[in-house]
Amino acid sequence: MALLDKVPGDLSLYIGGMFTLRRRDALHQANVTHVLSVLRMPLDQSLFSPFRHMVIEVDDVDDENLLEHFPATNQFIQEGLNGGGGVLVHCAMGKSRSATCVIAYLMQKHNINPSEALAYVRQARSIVEPNEGFMKQLELYGRMRTPDNVEDSPAYQRWVYQREIELSRACGQAPEAEKIRFEDEHVSDQAANFELRCRKCRRPLATSQYLVSHSTPSVINDQNERSPSVGPPPNCAHYFLDPLSWMRPELEQGKLDGRLECPKCHTNVGKYAWQGMQCSCSEWVVPGISLSKSRIDEVKKSAFSEIRRPPGATAPLPANASHSRQNL
């Protein structure tokens, strides 16, 4: 009698392909009560009686979003194990999709990274190999600290936004207005090293946490979160930025590229190109949303920190203190 591929340890967790469902004696012996199917294809429902059954309809392709299903698949697996039975996770071949869901569960259960969980699962089934896109999603999931609700995570939201941008770029179109992520409306608690102001009217346009550092890959980590940046290299003529809310009237017009004007004095301060833009340092940035160094002044933190003086402070505020952060 063929045995099931059991994940090592005390958990009654099994992984396999479609043919595993026909090993009825082995399933009965393992006391399997829950079956998680991770595939998109017609299923013979008779194979799933009398099991508690859950289906996640995804294809085994790099750009499939399996990450959004991790909380649900983790909960389903845990419910089966809590009930004292065994849980089988399968896809077509028991190699990529099913392995990804088992790895996600082990990451959350044991607080381990994707590589450790993958090595663990391979002890049960040596052929497992999540596709490259799924591995990147597992890495992001780990850096997000395996939350129970991924959709509320800024890292996940940013990742979805980047996918939308890539899709729009592939189609030669600007992203739909409602899908543009204006970063200052989502992230507001990061420390800023400096502020960028319009050289003509001194209106604050951005702070350093919204800079896209295109010459140091490590600045943008695998969870699409930005580490503190100290600005572009000296030979760059532009500051590349995330979309910010003051750009909304221009960016929501549906144009592939255009100019950015200061919202106060309407001076041309930069430009954008959803398909990407090459910096003067020869690096290519996608999407390209930039402010020109020749039109912008960089003000170090010490020069504008007085604006954020706590209530009750006695020191006088600078003349431009009315430009608060929410105006970005």
TrEMBL record:
Segments for region (Disordered): 307-328
Source organism superkingdom: Eukaryota
Organism name: Lentithecium fluviatile CBS 122367
Domain Tyrosine-protein phosphatase: 5-147
Cited SUPFAM superfamilies: (Phosphotyrosine protein) phosphatases II
EC number: 3.1.3.48
Broad EC category: hydrolase
Residues annotated as domain Tyrosine specific protein phosphatases: 67-125
Family of this protein: Belongs to the protein-tyrosine phosphatase family. Non-receptor class dual specificity subfamily.
GO molecular function, a single term: protein tyrosine/serine/threonine phosphatase activity
Active-site annotation: 91 (phosphocysteine intermediate)
InterPro entries (alphabetical): Dual-sp_phosphatase_cat-dom, DUSP12, Prot-tyrosine_phosphatase-like, Tyr_Pase_AS, Tyr_Pase_dom, TYR_PHOSPHATASE_DUAL_dom
Keywords: Hydrolase, Protein phosphatase
Pfam families recorded: DSPc
UniProt name for this protein: protein-tyrosine-phosphatase
GO CC annotation: nucleus
